């Protein structure tokens, strides 16, 4: 039996016939295995969902307790029909996992979104041996070499010191990036309260419950503070908040944005970003190609992202590679 017969794309997403399940489906299905809690991978309305405990908790926070007909925590290898599945850390966000599938004598690893850099807000990536590696390609171009995040945090703190009369507003997505940014600031020695948008509060509270040290956090809408009180402070919010009147409460704000896309200067200019921070929760080109070399799979299947360069790279390395052309992934985590 060919690998394509054991795992293949359908309109709803990647499908495993042996277990009769989809992975990160883009529409409601009977049985879904979810890699992580970002909205482009984790949707509500499925008949049954299998995911890590943290991903199930995050989905409940975002969608309500009844986000699926049934839920099951992925603990250890599980048998689903004629397939064996296991969840392994992906290093992307809290609870994120790669899904390893054994069926028909083949080993598949569906990586979801993953990152090889140290992240104080989640468990580190775990290499999983496989015959077929299904990988994202968000930053799959040789131009993408992400700097160490500690250096980007140092740039932010240097700007705060240089402009004590201004507030620094940092755009960071609500799940994963915001908490990682806060943890990095704490590791760099920033002990003052960090002010957060209301959209971050429940997810930050959950990270703290899970043992992620975020230090003192305060609501950015604190009625007891004047505009001048935010001078010299760091405020973290979803990027969408900067286009609203919400941002006008802060004194002459320095607009920052933490994203791997901030390496592209045109994107920073389009968003009106004064201080771009290149901090990504995805693999860059060196980590992506290193991962493939380390796993040494027979085949590489490429999902959402820049497929052509990675497929060309694999071909030159003597490895079979193909695009899956999955749709519906909007890269919420960047």
UniProtKB/TrEMBL annotation:
SUPFAM superfamilies associated with the record: Metallo-hydrolase/oxidoreductase (SSF56281)
Gene3D superfamilies membership: 3.40.50.10890, Ribonuclease Z/Hydroxyacylglutathione hydrolase-like
InterPro entries: MBL, RibonucZ/Hydroxyglut_hydro, Xnuc_lig_assoc
Entry's EC annotation: 3.1.-.-
GO molecular function, one term: RNA endonuclease activity
Keywords from the named record: Exonuclease, Hydrolase, Ligase, Nuclease
NCBIfam families: Xnuc_lig_assoc
Protein's recorded name: Ligase-associated DNA damage response exonuclease
Biological source species: Pseudooceanicola pacificus
């Amino acid at each position: 039996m060919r690998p394509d017969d054991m795992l293949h794309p359908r309109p709803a997403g990647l499908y495993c016939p042996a277990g009769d399940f989809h992975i990160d489906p883009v529409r409601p299905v009977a049985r879904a295995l979810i890699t992580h809690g970002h909205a482009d991978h984790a949707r509500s309305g499925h008949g049954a969902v299998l995911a890590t405990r943290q991903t199930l908790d995050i989905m409940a926070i975002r969608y309500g307790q009844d986000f699926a007909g049934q839920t099951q925590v992925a603990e250890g290898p599980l048998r689903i029909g004629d397939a064996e599945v296991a969840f392994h850390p992906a290093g992307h966000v809290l609870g994120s996992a790669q899904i390893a599938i054994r069926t028909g004598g083949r080993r598949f690893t569906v990586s979801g979104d993953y990152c090889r850099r140290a992240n104080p807000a989640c468990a580190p990536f775990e290499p999983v041996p496989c015959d077929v590696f299904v990988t994202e390609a968000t930053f799959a171009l040789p131009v993408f070499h992400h700097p160490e995040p500690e250096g980007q945090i140092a740039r932010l703190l240097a700007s705060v010191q240089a402009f004590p009369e201004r507030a620094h507003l940092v755009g960071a997505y609500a799940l994963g990036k915001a908490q990682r940014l806060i943890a990095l600031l704490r590791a760099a020695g920033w002990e003052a309260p960090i002010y957060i948008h209301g959209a971050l509060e429940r997810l930050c509270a959950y990270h703290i419950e899970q043992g992620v040290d975020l230090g003192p956090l305060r609501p950015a809408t604190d009625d007891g503070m004047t505009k001048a009180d935010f001078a010299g402070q760091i405020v973290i919010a979803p990027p969408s908040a900067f286009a609203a009147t919400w941002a006008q409460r802060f004194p002459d704000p320095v607009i920052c944005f933490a994203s791997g896309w901030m390496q592209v200067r045109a994107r920073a200019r389009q968003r009106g970003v004064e201080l771009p921070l290149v901090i990504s929760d995805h693999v860059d080109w060196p980590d992506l190609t290193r991962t493939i070399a380390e796993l040494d799979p027979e085949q590489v299947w490429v999902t959402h992202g820049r497929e052509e360069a990675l497929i060309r790279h694999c071909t030159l390395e003597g490895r079979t590679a193909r695009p899956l052309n999955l749709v519906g992934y909007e890269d919420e985590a960047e």
